[in-house]
Protein backbone atom coordinates (compact mmCIF):
# COMPACT_ATOMS: atom_id res chain seq x y z
CA UNK A 1 0.00 0.00 0.00
CA UNK A 2 1.17 3.56 -0.69
CA UNK A 3 2.51 6.04 1.87
CA UNK A 4 -0.26 6.83 4.36
CA UNK A 5 -0.14 10.55 3.58
CA UNK A 6 0.37 10.51 -0.19
CA UNK A 7 -2.29 12.68 -1.79
CA UNK A 8 -2.82 14.72 1.39
CA UNK A 9 -1.36 18.18 0.97
CA UNK A 10 -0.94 19.13 4.64
CA UNK A 11 -0.73 15.92 6.73
CA UNK A 12 0.62 17.79 9.78
CA UNK A 13 -2.78 19.51 10.04
CA UNK A 14 -4.78 16.29 9.94
CA UNK A 15 -6.87 14.89 12.77
CA UNK A 16 -6.38 11.16 13.35
CA UNK A 17 -6.13 9.45 9.96
CA UNK A 18 -5.44 5.84 9.01
CA UNK A 19 -5.26 3.84 5.79
CA UNK A 20 -5.97 0.14 6.23
CA UNK A 21 -5.02 -2.49 3.60
CA UNK A 22 -7.95 -4.26 1.95
CA UNK A 23 -8.39 -7.89 3.10
CA UNK A 24 -7.63 -10.56 0.52
CA UNK A 25 -11.34 -11.32 0.04
CA UNK A 26 -11.94 -7.87 -1.51
CA UNK A 27 -8.50 -7.21 -3.01
CA UNK A 28 -10.00 -6.95 -6.53
CA UNK A 29 -12.67 -4.55 -5.28
CA UNK A 30 -10.95 -2.13 -2.89
CA UNK A 31 -7.49 -0.57 -2.95
CA UNK A 32 -7.60 0.32 0.75
CA UNK A 33 -9.88 1.66 3.46
CA UNK A 34 -9.32 5.10 4.96
CA UNK A 35 -10.63 6.30 8.30
CA UNK A 36 -10.38 9.87 9.62
CA UNK A 37 -11.55 10.72 13.14
CA UNK A 38 -11.74 14.27 14.46
CA UNK A 39 -12.69 16.36 17.47
CA UNK A 40 -12.59 20.05 16.49
CA UNK A 41 -12.89 22.86 19.03
CA UNK A 42 -16.33 24.53 19.12
CA UNK A 43 -16.72 27.41 16.68
CA UNK A 44 -13.96 26.23 14.32
CA UNK A 45 -13.63 24.23 11.14
CA UNK A 46 -10.61 22.16 10.13
CA UNK A 47 -10.08 22.28 6.37
CA UNK A 48 -8.36 19.24 4.86
CA UNK A 49 -6.85 19.66 1.37
CA UNK A 50 -6.14 16.66 -0.87
CA UNK A 51 -5.02 15.73 -4.36
CA UNK A 52 -7.28 12.72 -4.43
CA UNK A 53 -6.26 9.45 -6.02
CA UNK A 54 -7.85 9.18 -9.50
CA UNK A 55 -10.56 6.77 -8.44
CA UNK A 56 -14.03 6.66 -6.90
CA UNK A 57 -14.78 6.17 -3.21
CA UNK A 58 -17.65 4.66 -1.25
CA UNK A 59 -17.89 6.57 2.04
CA UNK A 60 -19.88 5.79 5.17
CA UNK A 61 -20.49 8.84 7.34
CA UNK A 62 -22.48 9.39 10.49
CA UNK A 63 -25.67 10.32 8.65
CA UNK A 64 -25.35 8.82 5.16
CA UNK A 65 -23.50 6.68 2.63
CA UNK A 66 -22.30 8.36 -0.54
CA UNK A 67 -20.50 7.46 -3.74
CA UNK A 68 -17.81 10.05 -4.52
CA UNK A 69 -16.76 10.18 -8.14
CA UNK A 70 -13.21 10.77 -9.41
CA UNK A 71 -11.81 14.26 -8.93
CA UNK A 72 -10.14 16.47 -11.51
CA UNK A 73 -8.56 19.04 -9.18
CA UNK A 74 -7.48 19.83 -5.66
CA UNK A 75 -10.38 19.40 -3.26
CA UNK A 76 -11.05 19.99 0.39
CA UNK A 77 -13.47 18.99 3.10
CA UNK A 78 -14.40 21.06 6.14
CA UNK A 79 -14.54 19.14 9.41
CA UNK A 80 -16.51 20.43 12.41
CA UNK A 81 -17.36 19.13 15.85
CA UNK A 82 -16.68 15.49 16.57
CA UNK A 83 -16.98 12.83 13.90
CA UNK A 84 -15.59 10.10 11.71
CA UNK A 85 -15.86 8.56 8.26
CA UNK A 86 -15.03 5.14 6.86
CA UNK A 87 -14.16 5.21 3.19
CA UNK A 88 -13.19 2.60 0.62
CA UNK A 89 -11.00 3.64 -2.30
CA UNK A 90 -12.59 1.52 -5.00
CA UNK A 91 -10.78 -0.56 -7.55
CA UNK A 92 -12.07 0.15 -11.08
CA UNK A 93 -13.62 -3.34 -11.39
CA UNK A 94 -16.13 -2.51 -8.64
CA UNK A 95 -17.28 0.85 -10.02
CA UNK A 96 -19.95 -0.52 -12.44
CA UNK A 97 -21.70 -2.01 -9.40
CA UNK A 98 -22.65 1.57 -8.44
CA UNK A 99 -22.70 3.55 -11.70
CA UNK A 100 -22.42 2.83 -15.40
CA UNK A 101 -20.91 6.27 -16.06
CA UNK A 102 -18.34 7.37 -13.46
CA UNK A 103 -17.33 10.29 -15.68
CA UNK A 104 -20.73 11.90 -15.03
CA UNK A 105 -19.84 12.02 -11.31
CA UNK A 106 -16.50 13.78 -11.59
CA UNK A 107 -16.01 16.13 -8.62
CA UNK A 108 -19.44 15.16 -7.29
CA UNK A 109 -21.01 13.00 -4.58
CA UNK A 110 -24.09 10.82 -4.89
CA UNK A 111 -25.95 9.68 -1.71
CA UNK A 112 -26.87 5.99 -1.83
CA UNK A 113 -29.67 4.22 0.09
CA UNK A 114 -27.43 1.53 1.60
CA UNK A 115 -29.04 1.25 5.03
CA UNK A 116 -27.54 -2.15 5.85
CA UNK A 117 -23.97 -1.00 5.15
CA UNK A 118 -24.54 2.18 7.14
CA UNK A 119 -25.99 0.30 10.11
CA UNK A 120 -23.21 -2.28 10.27
CA UNK A 121 -20.39 0.27 10.09
CA UNK A 122 -22.15 2.56 12.57
CA UNK A 123 -22.36 -0.30 15.05
CA UNK A 124 -18.70 -1.17 14.47
CA UNK A 125 -17.39 2.28 15.39
CA UNK A 126 -19.33 2.51 18.64
CA UNK A 127 -16.58 1.04 20.83
CA UNK A 128 -14.05 2.90 22.99
CA UNK A 129 -10.75 1.44 21.75
CA UNK A 130 -9.70 3.31 18.57
CA UNK A 131 -7.73 0.44 17.01
CA UNK A 132 -10.55 -2.03 17.62
CA UNK A 133 -13.10 0.42 16.20
CA UNK A 134 -11.14 0.76 12.99
CA UNK A 135 -10.64 -2.98 12.63
CA UNK A 136 -14.32 -3.73 13.22
CA UNK A 137 -15.32 -1.02 10.74
CA UNK A 138 -13.15 -2.54 8.03
CA UNK A 139 -14.49 -6.01 8.81
CA UNK A 140 -18.09 -4.76 8.61
CA UNK A 141 -17.43 -2.96 5.32
CA UNK A 142 -15.68 -6.03 3.91
CA UNK A 143 -18.48 -8.37 4.96
CA UNK A 144 -21.02 -6.16 3.22
CA UNK A 145 -19.00 -6.16 0.01
CA UNK A 146 -18.56 -9.94 0.08
CA UNK A 147 -22.31 -10.39 0.60
CA UNK A 148 -23.02 -8.11 -2.36
CA UNK A 149 -20.95 -10.50 -4.48
CA UNK A 150 -20.36 -8.00 -7.31
CA UNK A 151 -19.39 -9.42 -10.67
CA UNK A 152 -15.75 -8.82 -11.65
CA UNK A 153 -15.30 -9.14 -15.40
CA UNK A 154 -12.11 -9.72 -17.36
CA UNK A 155 -12.43 -6.17 -18.63
CA UNK A 156 -12.69 -4.97 -15.04
CA UNK A 157 -9.50 -6.82 -14.16
CA UNK A 158 -7.81 -5.10 -17.12
CA UNK A 159 -8.96 -1.76 -15.68
CA UNK A 160 -7.44 -2.77 -12.32
CA UNK A 161 -4.18 -3.71 -14.03
CA UNK A 162 -4.08 -0.40 -15.88
CA UNK A 163 -4.62 1.54 -12.65
CA UNK A 164 -1.91 -0.48 -10.88
CA UNK A 165 0.58 0.00 -13.71
CA UNK A 166 0.04 3.72 -14.15
CA UNK A 167 -0.03 4.32 -10.41
CA UNK A 168 3.23 2.52 -9.70
CA UNK A 169 5.46 2.84 -12.77
CA UNK A 170 7.37 6.08 -13.32
CA UNK A 171 8.41 4.76 -16.75
CA UNK A 172 4.82 5.04 -17.96
CA UNK A 173 4.59 8.62 -19.17
CA UNK A 174 2.28 8.16 -22.18
CA UNK A 175 -0.85 6.23 -23.01
CA UNK A 176 1.14 4.17 -25.50
CA UNK A 177 3.57 3.07 -22.76
CA UNK A 178 0.72 1.60 -20.71
CA UNK A 179 -0.88 -0.06 -23.73
CA UNK A 180 2.39 -1.74 -24.73
CA UNK A 181 2.97 -3.13 -21.25
CA UNK A 182 -0.58 -4.48 -21.01
CA UNK A 183 -0.54 -5.89 -24.57
CA UNK A 184 -3.64 -4.01 -25.70
CA UNK A 185 -4.29 -1.06 -27.99
CA UNK A 186 -4.35 2.55 -26.73
CA UNK A 187 -7.96 2.78 -27.85
CA UNK A 188 -8.87 -0.20 -25.66
CA UNK A 189 -7.35 1.50 -22.61
CA UNK A 190 -9.21 4.72 -23.37
CA UNK A 191 -12.51 2.84 -23.57
CA UNK A 192 -11.83 0.87 -20.38
CA UNK A 193 -10.76 3.99 -18.48
CA UNK A 194 -13.95 5.81 -19.48
CA UNK A 195 -16.17 2.91 -18.39
CA UNK A 196 -14.46 1.92 -15.14
CA UNK A 197 -12.71 5.09 -13.90
CA UNK A 198 -14.26 8.13 -15.53
CA UNK A 199 -10.91 9.74 -16.33
CA UNK A 200 -8.62 9.26 -19.31
CA UNK A 201 -5.37 7.25 -18.99
CA UNK A 202 -3.48 10.48 -19.64
CA UNK A 203 -5.27 12.09 -16.70
CA UNK A 204 -4.21 9.14 -14.50
CA UNK A 205 -0.60 9.63 -15.53
CA UNK A 206 -0.74 13.36 -14.83
CA UNK A 207 -2.27 12.73 -11.40
CA UNK A 208 0.40 10.20 -10.44
CA UNK A 209 3.18 12.59 -11.42
CA UNK A 210 1.57 15.48 -9.59
CA UNK A 211 1.05 13.43 -6.42
CA UNK A 212 4.65 12.26 -6.56
CA UNK A 213 5.88 15.82 -7.11
CA UNK A 214 3.85 17.15 -4.19
CA UNK A 215 4.98 14.29 -1.95
CA UNK A 216 8.65 14.81 -2.83
CA UNK A 217 8.38 18.57 -2.40
CA UNK A 218 6.88 18.08 1.07
CA UNK A 219 9.01 15.23 2.42
CA UNK A 220 12.35 16.41 0.99
CA UNK A 221 12.41 20.22 1.30
CA UNK A 222 16.09 20.34 0.31
CA UNK A 223 15.55 18.53 -3.00
CA UNK A 224 16.00 20.65 -6.10
CA UNK A 225 12.68 21.17 -7.86
CA UNK A 226 14.29 20.92 -11.29
CA UNK A 227 15.71 17.52 -10.30
CA UNK A 228 12.27 16.36 -9.09
CA UNK A 229 10.78 17.50 -12.40
CA UNK A 230 13.35 15.57 -14.40
CA UNK A 231 12.98 12.45 -12.25
CA UNK A 232 9.21 12.39 -12.75
CA UNK A 233 9.39 12.85 -16.51
CA UNK A 234 8.51 16.53 -16.82
CA UNK A 235 10.20 18.31 -19.69
CA UNK A 236 11.62 20.91 -17.29
CA UNK A 237 10.99 22.79 -14.06
CA UNK A 238 8.55 25.14 -15.83
CA UNK A 239 6.29 22.25 -16.87
CA UNK A 240 6.16 20.99 -13.27
CA UNK A 241 5.30 24.49 -12.08
CA UNK A 242 2.57 24.81 -14.70
CA UNK A 243 1.08 21.45 -13.67
CA UNK A 244 1.04 22.54 -10.02
CA UNK A 245 -0.47 25.91 -10.88
CA UNK A 246 -3.13 24.46 -13.16
CA UNK A 247 -4.36 21.77 -10.77
CA UNK A 248 -3.57 23.13 -7.32
CA UNK A 249 -3.62 26.88 -7.86
CA UNK A 250 -0.10 27.50 -6.55
CA UNK A 251 3.54 26.75 -7.41
CA UNK A 252 5.77 24.05 -5.85
CA UNK A 253 7.76 26.76 -4.05
CA UNK A 254 4.60 28.25 -2.57
CA UNK A 255 3.47 24.78 -1.49
CA UNK A 256 6.74 24.19 0.31
CA UNK A 257 6.34 27.44 2.21
CA UNK A 258 2.79 26.57 3.21
CA UNK A 259 3.78 23.10 4.39
CA UNK A 260 6.42 24.59 6.67
CA UNK A 261 3.95 26.79 8.61
CA UNK A 262 1.05 25.90 10.88
CA UNK A 263 -2.65 26.10 10.05
CA UNK A 264 -3.80 29.43 8.61
CA UNK A 265 -7.14 31.15 8.92
CA UNK A 266 -8.30 29.29 5.81
CA UNK A 267 -7.44 25.98 7.45
CA UNK A 268 -9.17 26.77 10.74
CA UNK A 269 -12.09 28.95 9.76
CA UNK A 270 -15.31 29.95 11.45
CA UNK A 271 -18.27 27.82 10.42
CA UNK A 272 -20.74 28.86 7.76
CA UNK A 273 -18.97 28.04 4.48
CA UNK A 274 -20.76 25.92 1.88
CA UNK A 275 -19.38 22.83 0.25
CA UNK A 276 -19.50 22.36 -3.54
CA UNK A 277 -23.04 21.61 -4.72
CA UNK A 278 -24.62 20.15 -7.84
CA UNK A 279 -26.53 22.65 -9.98
CA UNK A 280 -30.06 21.29 -10.45
CA UNK A 281 -31.41 22.40 -13.83
CA UNK A 282 -34.80 20.77 -13.26
CA UNK A 283 -35.59 22.57 -10.02
CA UNK A 284 -33.76 25.88 -10.42
CA UNK A 285 -32.54 27.49 -7.20
CA UNK A 286 -30.89 30.85 -6.48
CA UNK A 287 -28.75 29.29 -3.70
CA UNK A 288 -25.35 30.98 -3.73
CA UNK A 289 -26.58 33.82 -5.97
CA UNK A 290 -29.06 35.46 -3.59
CA UNK A 291 -27.15 38.76 -3.40
CA UNK A 292 -27.38 39.34 -7.15
CA UNK A 293 -29.89 42.02 -8.22
CA UNK A 294 -30.93 39.59 -10.99
CA UNK A 295 -30.70 36.43 -8.85
CA UNK A 296 -33.52 34.55 -10.58
CA UNK A 297 -32.12 35.21 -14.05
CA UNK A 298 -28.57 34.43 -12.90
CA UNK A 299 -29.78 31.12 -11.46
CA UNK A 300 -31.47 30.36 -14.78
CA UNK A 301 -28.24 31.12 -16.63
CA UNK A 302 -26.28 28.85 -14.29
CA UNK A 303 -28.86 26.08 -14.74
CA UNK A 304 -28.66 26.54 -18.51
CA UNK A 305 -24.92 25.79 -18.38
CA UNK A 306 -25.53 22.74 -16.17
CA UNK A 307 -28.12 21.40 -18.62
CA UNK A 308 -25.75 21.89 -21.56
CA UNK A 309 -22.93 19.88 -19.97
CA UNK A 310 -25.35 17.20 -18.82
CA UNK A 311 -26.88 16.83 -22.29
CA UNK A 312 -23.70 17.05 -24.35
CA UNK A 313 -21.15 15.38 -22.08
CA UNK A 314 -23.23 13.66 -19.37
CA UNK A 315 -21.26 15.78 -16.87
CA UNK A 316 -22.61 16.74 -13.43
CA UNK A 317 -22.10 20.51 -13.11
CA UNK A 318 -21.01 21.52 -9.59
CA UNK A 319 -20.09 24.95 -8.22
CA UNK A 320 -18.34 26.25 -5.10
CA UNK A 321 -18.38 29.61 -3.35
CA UNK A 322 -15.77 31.78 -5.09
CA UNK A 323 -13.98 32.28 -1.77
CA UNK A 324 -13.45 28.51 -1.54
CA UNK A 325 -11.80 28.19 -4.96
CA UNK A 326 -9.74 31.39 -5.36
CA UNK A 327 -7.42 29.62 -7.80
CA UNK A 328 -10.28 29.34 -10.32
CA UNK A 329 -11.19 33.03 -10.00
CA UNK A 330 -7.50 33.96 -10.24
CA UNK A 331 -7.09 31.86 -13.39
CA UNK A 332 -10.01 33.52 -15.16
CA UNK A 333 -8.92 36.98 -13.97
CA UNK A 334 -5.37 36.40 -15.17
CA UNK A 335 -6.47 35.33 -18.65
CA UNK A 336 -8.78 38.34 -18.96
CA UNK A 337 -6.03 40.69 -17.80
CA UNK A 338 -3.20 39.27 -19.91
CA UNK A 339 -5.24 38.67 -23.07
CA UNK A 340 -7.39 41.84 -23.18
CA UNK A 341 -6.44 43.97 -20.16
CA UNK A 342 -9.91 43.41 -18.69
CA UNK A 343 -10.66 43.66 -14.96
CA UNK A 344 -14.19 42.68 -13.90
CA UNK A 345 -15.62 45.07 -11.34
CA UNK A 346 -18.39 42.82 -10.01
CA UNK A 347 -17.86 40.49 -7.05
CA UNK A 348 -17.45 36.77 -7.92
CA UNK A 349 -20.01 34.61 -6.15
CA UNK A 350 -19.39 31.08 -7.41
CA UNK A 351 -16.86 29.24 -9.54
CA UNK A 352 -16.02 25.82 -10.88
CA UNK A 353 -13.24 24.13 -12.84
CA UNK A 354 -13.34 20.71 -14.50
CA UNK A 355 -12.16 18.62 -17.45
CA UNK A 356 -14.49 17.19 -20.06
CA UNK A 357 -13.71 15.62 -23.44
CA UNK A 358 -10.16 17.01 -23.55
CA UNK A 359 -11.22 20.51 -22.49
CA UNK A 360 -10.48 22.29 -19.25
CA UNK A 361 -13.48 24.46 -18.35
CA UNK A 362 -13.32 27.28 -15.80
CA UNK A 363 -16.48 29.19 -14.83
CA UNK A 364 -17.05 32.24 -12.64
CA UNK A 365 -20.54 33.57 -11.84
CA UNK A 366 -20.56 37.21 -10.73
CA UNK A 367 -22.95 39.19 -8.55
CA UNK A 368 -23.96 41.42 -11.46
CA UNK A 369 -25.39 38.41 -13.34
CA UNK A 370 -22.36 38.04 -15.60
CA UNK A 371 -21.01 34.54 -16.29
CA UNK A 372 -17.51 34.05 -17.71
CA UNK A 373 -16.19 30.73 -18.91
CA UNK A 374 -12.73 29.77 -20.12
CA UNK A 375 -12.64 26.84 -22.53
CA UNK A 376 -9.06 25.59 -22.83
CA UNK A 377 -8.05 22.57 -24.88
CA UNK A 378 -5.58 20.42 -22.95
CA UNK A 379 -3.87 19.38 -26.17
CA UNK A 380 -2.10 21.96 -28.31
CA UNK A 381 -4.01 23.10 -31.37
CA UNK A 382 -7.47 22.71 -29.84
CA UNK A 383 -10.12 25.29 -29.05
CA UNK A 384 -9.21 27.93 -26.48
CA UNK A 385 -11.56 30.83 -25.85
CA UNK A 386 -13.23 33.04 -23.23
CA UNK A 387 -17.02 33.34 -23.29
CA UNK A 388 -19.21 36.02 -21.70
CA UNK A 389 -22.90 35.52 -20.94
CA UNK A 390 -25.26 38.12 -19.45
CA UNK A 391 -28.24 37.14 -17.34
CA UNK A 392 -31.62 38.40 -18.54
CA UNK A 393 -32.25 41.95 -17.30
CA UNK A 394 -28.68 43.01 -16.52
CA UNK A 395 -26.82 45.83 -18.28
CA UNK A 396 -23.68 45.13 -20.27
CA UNK A 397 -20.78 45.71 -17.83
CA UNK A 398 -18.87 48.93 -18.51
CA UNK A 399 -15.58 47.05 -18.88
CA UNK A 400 -17.08 45.01 -21.77
CA UNK A 401 -19.52 47.44 -23.40
CA UNK A 402 -17.11 49.14 -25.80
CA UNK A 403 -15.14 46.02 -26.68
CA UNK A 404 -17.64 43.31 -27.59
CA UNK A 405 -20.85 42.88 -29.49
CA UNK A 406 -23.35 40.59 -27.80
CA UNK A 407 -25.61 38.20 -29.70
CA UNK A 408 -28.96 37.11 -28.25
CA UNK A 409 -30.31 33.63 -27.75
CA UNK A 410 -33.45 32.30 -26.11
CA UNK A 411 -33.41 29.76 -23.29
CA UNK A 412 -36.33 28.14 -21.47
CA UNK A 413 -34.29 28.26 -18.27
CA UNK A 414 -32.67 31.68 -18.59
CA UNK A 415 -34.94 33.75 -20.82
CA UNK A 416 -32.88 35.94 -23.15
CA UNK A 417 -29.13 35.35 -22.88
CA UNK A 418 -26.69 37.77 -24.46
CA UNK A 419 -23.27 36.33 -25.26
CA UNK A 420 -19.90 37.14 -26.75
CA UNK A 421 -16.39 35.66 -26.77
CA UNK A 422 -12.76 36.03 -27.80
CA UNK A 423 -10.07 33.52 -28.80
CA UNK A 424 -7.19 32.94 -26.37
CA UNK A 425 -3.77 33.43 -27.93
CA UNK A 426 -1.43 32.83 -24.97
CA UNK A 427 -0.48 29.68 -23.02
CA UNK A 428 -2.10 29.14 -19.61
Q: Can you give a write-up of this model?
A:
This protein is an alpha+beta fold and 428 residues long. It folds into 2 domains: 1-267, Arc Repressor Mutant, subunit A (Orthogonal Bundle), CATH 1.10.10.60; 277-423, no CATH class. The chain has helices at 115-124, 130-148, 154-168, 175-182, 186-196, 201-219, 225-231, 237-248, 252-259, 295-313, 326-340, 398-401; strands spanning 16-21, 30-39, 45-50, 57-61, 65-68, 75-79, 82-90, 109-112, 268-269, 277-278, 318-321, 348-356, 359-366, 370-377, 384-390, 407-411, 415-423. The strands form 3 sheets. It has an 8-stranded antiparallel sheet. A 6-stranded antiparallel sheet has the order 1-2-7-4-5-8, with helices on one face. The protein has a 3-stranded antiparallel sheet with strand order 6-3-9, with no helix packed on it. A hairpin with a 6-residue loop joins strand 14 and strand 15. Helix 6 (201-219) crosses helix 9. The longest helix has 19 residues, at 130-148. The two termini are 35 Å apart. Mean pLDDT is 88; it is low at 262-275.
Fold blueprint:
Elements: E1 16-21, E2 30-39, E3 45-50, E4 57-61, E5 65-68, E6 75-79, E7 82-90, E8 109-112, H1 115-124, H2 130-148, H3 154-168, H4 175-182, H5 186-196, H6 201-219, H7 225-231, H8 237-248, H9 252-259, E9 268-269, E10 277-278, H10 295-313, E11 318-321, H11 326-340, E12 348-356, E13 359-366, E14 370-377, E15 384-390, H12 398-401, E16 407-411, E17 415-423
Antiparallel strand pairs: 1-2, 2-7, 3-6, 3-9, 4-5, 4-7, 5-8, 10-11, 11-12, 12-13, 13-14, 14-15, 15-17, 16-17
Helix pairs in contact: 1-2, 3-5, 3-6, 4-5, 6-9, 7-8
